[in-house]
Amino acid sequence: MILVDLPVALYALSLLSFALAALAGVTSRSASVRAAHPSLALSLVGLVFGGSLAVLQLGAPSAWGSELVVPGFSAAAPGITVLDFGLTGLGAVFLLLLAVVGGVVVLASLGYVARFVHERRGPLAGLIGLFLMSMELVITSQSVFLFLLAWEGMTLVSYFLVVHEHDSWEVRRAGLFYLVMSHAAAAGVLISLVLLGAGTGAWTFSSIAAGAGRLGAWQAGAVFVAALIGFGTKAGVAPLHVWLPEAHPAAPSNVSALMSGVMIKMGVYGAILVPFELLGGTPPLWWGFTWIGLGALSCLLGVLNAIAQHDLKRLLAFHSVENIGIIFLALGASLVFLSLGAPLLAALSLLAGLFHTWNHALFKALLFLGAGAATGSAGTRDMEALGGLARRMPYTALFFLGGAMAISGLPPLNGFVSEWLLFQSLFGAFTTGSLATEVVFTAVAGVLALSSGLAAYCFVKAFGVTFLARPRSEAARSVVREAPSSMTAAMGALFGLCLLLGVAPFLLLGPISTVASGLVGAPPISYSAGGAFGSLPRPGSTGGSLAIGVVALGLAAGLLVVWLLRRMGSGHAAPRGAAWDCGIDAPTPRMEYTASGYAQPILRLFGGFYRASSHLEPRGPGSPRQGSLAKTGHVEVEVEYPLVAGFYSPLTVAVQSLARRVSRLQSGGIHAYLGYMVLTLIGLLVILRIAGGGAP
Amino acid sequence: MTPWEILLTTLVLAAELALAVGLAPLLTSVVRRRKSRSQRRTGPSMIQPYLDLAKLWGKGTVYVESSSAVTRAAPLISFASLLAAVPFVPWFFLPAPLGFAGDLIVVVGLLALSRFMTAVAALDAGSTFGGMGSTRDMWIGALFEPTFLLVIFAWGAPSGSTQASTIVLHGATLGAAHLSPALLLASAAFALLLLAETGRLPVDNPATHLELTMVHEAMVLEYGGRDLALIELGQSLRMVLLLELFVAVLLPWGIALSFGLAALALALVLLLVKLLAASALLGELETRVAKWRLFRVADLAVLSWVLALGSISLTYLVGVG
User: Fold this and answer.
1) Which residue in chain A is spatially nearest to B147 when comparing CA positions?
2) Which candidate in A431, A460, A605 is best for mutational testing of the B interface (most B CBs within 10 A)?
3) Could you tell me the sign of the dihedral formed by the alpha carbons of A234, A235, A239, A242, in that order?
């Protein structure tokens, strides 16, 4: 009689469902919706099993940080443990995220895949199943080799998803760019984990964590830097983010939602895994400050670039860079607090980072789905050609607006709560007594406030130009129908979650804070006075408190009163008229503010950053420009990306020229290859002789 | 809390809401009166803002043909979020009635929500003015958001709290030592923020209707009737909120700490005096400066950052008390 305990059964069933989903999706030859639906449904089942496993782990009373509550099971190869599965508390936070956001996006895909019915393309649904499975494997891998395999699998599957619409040259180019960057990242991950394994002599995560104390400062530092490059690239931290604004717009919108919502969070998972769980101990100060520096850079670079975009999905992709920056700020602050021996504050920062990871996943998936619904119906991603969609797609508009408010950090939505937590932990720096930390953290709070203000700016633009006023083009006018009901339902669910976590954050903060406290070895954060979310403990001070539910209630009460007052005694519906036109002519959509026009004040203020240049070409019947008067004309504003032009392009050129030189080795003659083999053999023997010493 | 205390706290909450909304037009009027007097004009009657609001409330509304539900919802949300911010600011009684539920960062969030909704709605009509006002207003808001946070950090560092009640209580118990150089620097930064947030000169001219210079007026150009009344009242309320926060932190003395009748009466009188004086000062300032070019406002913002950062560095160097 075989007894299988519940977690193992859930895990196996989850993986099995994903495998079946992939099989169902890949094998069906006919590219019809009916073929895609069973596959997506199976993925959904897999996510439900995976999510249950995560809930089981988070809900367990002894679920303390790195402790393995769900028993790992390993398949032992002779001599060395190769495959080790298991779920840590940290993993459970991410697995639940995968289940929730992934589930909603799969739901949205039910309607979204209909768009690709008549096109002969790859098996989108099957690949989504594989993609979800690979991410679950990344989270549940507890040994170096399995983790690397799962990581590579995730990269490859996501590449095929990015190039789904591969008949366009831009998509193929973006895909290649993504593939190359991802493999550079994978190299970082590989180096980091192999260094850890070699240094500790152990290859499972639990034994690495146990032996990490034996690593020297230099070794630990090398592991940290390699992990930062590897996982940071996947997460999209500046200056390693350049693949992100290329790959996200190229992919279908449901895939963008998955990638931006969940996949880049795997980078965050890895970034937390290495220093907090595997290396452990008290980190040196420079680790935390490096993360903070890169985080601050990502925040500003991401949001400033986002403002300059008028491709809606590119804009959203740059905002992922900004939000990953916020997450890294929080994680960096946590490391610094840990170095300074303030575990409570470290737990608070880590909590802020983990909570923001969740929040970003929710609202970014929502925004990508909304953008997909809007741009898909209109057939263009150019905001300058959209407009007026709110009246044709009211639900999409409402939910997109909700997501826009959440990402801008406005109460009573979830983005506000995680930013509030981060501000509180930064404010706590003054208790550490380290002047440098106090000053840096204050400046960081300023950067965070600036980037959240700029995010609000950007999303007023994004929402207003896309959804409000009148359609700016034939393409936008052609939209007559709301998005498919599965998509609006998915967006509604995500918006509901954003609101729920904004009003009642303790629902999620409770379990996450247990994990966060466990990771940094702090006593659990208690939520005392103030009901839902009261004063957070801070040594020697009262701190700040937030019962966001009360704030939301006040807001709702105020809204109700004002609404009733406005209604009172004004029975008939308000008439409609034309907008004020200065008495010239009826306003046309061409008089509306454009996305570029909206961005102009920021472009001008940060001109040095953008190196923006504009060209004005007067056009029309033989009209040279008469002063500033031109009857008709065409203005083009170009924004340079100094990072790409100054670093990545030269790097590419250098790699290519090196490759050309190396390729001279390939003469094609057998004798040359035989010669290489002999030389290699001799070389290896020499190395073995020198390094191996007394080898038998 | 006993039922008696809960009742009293509820009464304080109601009184503060009524006070804030009721005072808002009066303070706007004081600013205008002071401004016209120093320009040797008679100026409108002191109750003119109330009359304007009553007139607007009685009028009907016309919406732009192409506008969506955003236009109708925005004035409501915008006003409600300002209203919701009132209980988090100390008025005449400590602790603030809902002080346990949120700190000054909540006030920043609620003010930002109000601004966001107005700016979004400004794009709905599809006229050029709306877009122009919207982009400028969000631009100014984004530049001054760091100021607000840094000032909160600077104000909060001595007491170790971001709660308004704790900050004010800490200041009141310190006596004259409360007026430290660090506090003055931070308050100067806050004063600049106040000018920007409430759209006063030199950032925005509330009295203008010239297309090229207006910011807030351009955003709300398409509104009329009760919506416009709410927007106007909201603009005044925003000013009262920030003015009160300013005087409460800078001059915390006199605020009532218990439910004694004498203490409450004194606190109310002092509150009125402080607010009227601050408004008059604001009016005086408005006569002295001209409207700045929009892009020069960035200098003002950077100046406020520097002041706030200077204040915090000073606090840290001297050591947190």
Assistant:
1) A446
2) A460
3) positive
pLDDT for res A647: 81
Q: Give SS3 for A285.
A: helix
Residues 6+ apart with CB under 8 A from A414: A358, A359, A362, A363, A406, A497, A498, A499, A501, A502, A505
Cα(A696)–Cα(B11) distance, integer angstroms: 91
Q: State how far the Cα of A244 lies from the Cα of A241, in Å rounded to an integer.
A: 6
Task: Residue A193: name the closest of A131, A240, A151, A247 by CA.
Answer: A151
* Nearest CB to B128 within list A447, A541, A593: A593
Nearest-10 crossing angle of helices A312-339, A264-272? 10
Three-state DSSP class for residue A542: coil
Instruction: Name the nearest CA neighbour of B118 among B94, B141, B134, B132.
Output: B134
Crossing angle, helix A89-112 and helix A33-59, to 10 degrees? Answer: 160
- Residue A129 DSSP SS3: helix
Cβ atoms A362, A494 nearer than 8 A = yes
CA angle A240, A245, A251 (to 5 degrees): 125
A637 bridge partner residues: A614
In chain A, domain spans = 603-619+631-654
Closest CA of chain A from B157, distance in Å? 7
Among A641, A458, A422, smallest CA distance to A536 is for: A422
Residue B105 contacts residue A425 (beta carbons within 8 Å): no
CB atoms within 10 A of CB A435: 13
CB pairs under 8 A between A and B: 276
Residue A82: helix, strand or coil by DSSP? Answer: strand
pLDDT tens profile A70-120: 344 444 444 444 457 788 889 999 999 999 999 999 999 887 776 665 555
Residue A211 at interface with chain B, using a CB cutoff of 8 Å: no
Q: How far is A408 from chain B (nearest CA, A)?
A: 9
**Are residues B124 and A391, on separate chains, in Cβ contact within 8 Å?**
no
Q: Which member of B115, B160, B320 has the closest CB to residue A542?
A: B160
| Helix intervals (H) in A201-284 | 205-211, 217-235, 244-250, 253-258, 264-272
The pLDDT, as a whole number, for residue A79 is 40
For A515, the token pair is 């994990």
A18 token code pair? 């994903």
**Identity of the residue in B122, B131, B148 whose CB atom sits nearest the CB atom of A449:** B148
Closest-CA distance, A470 to chain B, in angstroms, reads: 6
Pick from B108, B157, B295: CB nearest A604? B295
CB proximity list for B127: less than 8 A, separation 6 or greater: A579, A580, A581, A587, A591, A592, B64, B221, B222
CA distance B201 to chain A (A): 19
pLDDT at A456 over 50: yes
Query: Chain B neighbours among A 81-140 (CB < 8 Å)?
Result: none
Structure tokens at A258: 């998955």
Instruction: Provide the pLDDT for residue A533.
Output: 38
Packing angle, helices A435-467 and A595-605, rounded to 10: 160
With a cut of 50, which residues of chain B have pLDDT below it? 321
pLDDT in tens, A180-215: 989 989 999 999 999 998 888 888 888 888 888 888
Closest CA to A251 of A327, A320, A200, A349: A320
To the nearest whole angstrom, how far is the Cα of A562 from the nearest Cα of chain B? 6
Q: Contact B163/A431, CB-based, under 8 Å? A: no
Residue spans per domain, chain B: 3-318
Indicate the pairing of strand A632-638 with strand A613-619: antiparallel
Residue A62 confidence (pLDDT) above 60: no
